[in-house]
Amino acid sequence: MEKTKPWHNKETKTLIGIWSEDEVQRELESTVRNQKVFQKISQRMWELGYNRSPDRCRVKIKKLKQDYRRLKEYNKRNGTNRKTKWHDALDAVLGRRAEHVGRSVTAESSTSLLESVMSCNGVEDGGDSDDDVLSVSIDNADDRSRTRISSPILPVTLPLSPGLSSPASSNITAEEPRPTVPRVRGKRRRGHSNHIDAMREIFLMAEEREDRRQRVQQEFEERRLQVLQELEHSAGIREAELINTLAQFNQGLLSVMGQLVSVMASNHSPQPPP
DNA sequence: GATGCCCACCATGGTCCGGT
DNA sequence: ACCGGACCATGGTGGGCATC
């Protein structure tokens, strides 16, 4: 079997950037069948010039998470503070996810949400996140519910769940990684049918989140179009310059050819009889 | 036809291992 | 440290079947 080529830093950075987007995270959390999500990630990678199959993206993310958990476990055991290259970037996502695990509300995940609301005590160390890979900071000037994740690709402002503090600002105590903690997986979970109030609250939260999500998506789309337009514009300018240069060259060439032809014609013109 | 149960299949995530 | 491959446990999915 042919060994797949290793991941370069920029490639990994791009993958983490895409994977860490709120929309992607929400899709990953809301469903067990993640193939379509990873197809989208793979597609985005391809658009950015990296050819990685959905499965390779999935495996890579899996490995990154594994390394993150391992090192965290190691640090906890030994009281050290070792970090992998991508620790902070992963911590920003995994730490955040741990805080609102199951809170990414969709209609399909309402039962899992309910569980998390009923027994929500699993929070994880937010971790510091001063990193050159993905910088996460809080726009606390006017909206504390938003975290700005500056990805190397495009700056995207992602919403946090209501009431959540940022990973950087949270004073949540460190929690060990979740080794084989059963993930709250949608459909198998049943029961909890009596908690109407909780459900109502959840759906209200879902609506609110959906509104925010649409705003973010619109923002992202506008930014993407803007970048595309800029690219097209600069490409157009370059093309026009090229055409202009070519035209000048052709004109010069024709002029030279014309002169050459006239000189040759005058040299070979029949001598008038004496 | 609708519903519920059972079961095989398979996708997924976690873990381990060996190679670079 | 980072990588890919293999294995395993879990649980979602879909089809078949029985019952109403």
Automatic annotation (TrEMBL):
Give the matching Pfam families: Myb_DNA-bind_4 (PF13837)
Q: Which domain of life is it from?
A: Eukaryota
- Residue span, Myb/SANT-like DNA-binding domain: 6-92
Map out region (Disordered) in residue numbers: 160-192
What are the Low complexity biased-composition ranges? 160-170
Name this protein carries in UniProt: Myb/SANT-like DNA-binding domain-containing protein
Tell me what organism the protein belongs to: Pangasianodon hypophthalmus
